[in-house]
Design goal:
The chain has no helices and eleven strands. By secondary structure, the chain is mainly β. Strands 2, 4, 5, 6, 9, 10 and 11 form a seven-stranded mixed beta sheet that branches. Strand 5 and strand 6 form a beta hairpin.
């Protein structure tokens, strides 16, 4: 099994920045990729960014390109999401997830390919 623990959420004004962290523990070798998803009230969960554990491939949702950066520190089993130029529409609960098994890069954005999920951290952006 894999455990994922997120941190770094909070309240920030529009235009501000936050950095989310996700520490993975347990059977890390079963993880192919890590993703950051978010879910706002009344909306479906969406992938905002993902990265293969090797770092060779990344995915960004169009809505966050140029503002968010995903990175990983393999030595620390940690994935980060640097969020800059935050907008009120970025307000959501953000979840870290681990993709089990090997998929094509197109699957990085697909929630059903992720077997491990963190508890979520709230990000609120005020206008």
């Amino acid at each position: 099994q894999v455990q994922l623990v997120e941190s770094g959420g909070g309240l920030v004004q529009a235009g501000g920045s936050l950095r989310l962290s996700c520490v993975a523990s347990g059977r890390i070798s079963s993880i192919h990729a890590m993703g950051w998803f978010r879910q706002a009230p009344g909306k479906e969960r969406e992938c905002v960014a993902a990265i293969t554990w090797s770092g060779g491939s990344t995915y960004y949702a169009d809505s966050v390109k140029g503002r968010f950066t995903i990175s990983r520190d393999n030595a620390e089993n940690t994935v980060y999401l640097q969020m800059n130029s935050l907008k009120p529409e970025d307000t959501a609960v953000y979840y870290c997830a681990g993709q089990k098994g090997v998929y094509t890069d197109n699957a990085l954005r697909a929630p059903y390919t992720y077997a491990y999920w963190g508890q979520g951290t709230q990000v609120t952006v005020s206008s």
